[in-house]
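User: Teach me something about this protein's shape.
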Amino acid sequence: RQAYARALALDPELAASATNLAPLLARAGEAAAGKDLLDRLITGHPLADSAYRNRAVVRLALGDEAGCRADLETAMKLLPDAGLAQALARFAEQRGDTASALRWHEEARRLDPRLR
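Assistant: First, the predicted structure itself:
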């Protein structure tokens, strides 16, 4: 955490440090600060799929399930990934959304046929 914070102090535009620091802040009980960091990053880099993925984690820590799902779906649009589709399927299953879970499981298998 300290290394990422130092890197950002030296270069506030260092996207990788901001992306990686935010979930650490959330785990340390500072999720709002992590979200603010990623909000600023996404404003400047709206195609940064990893920033959306990590902001989803931070939003979930804040209890923002709708925001978490929206960020996961945005990351999926930017860079389709079978693992992310599986995560979306599990997210939907845990919330009782069977139709979405099925759709995301199918998308995961489409992206990686080895998942059959």
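Now, about its shape. Helices lie at 2-10, 15-27, 31-44, 49-61, 65-78, 82-94, 98-111. The chain has a mean pLDDT of 89. If you'd like, I can walk through any region in more detail.
User: That's plenty for now, thanks!
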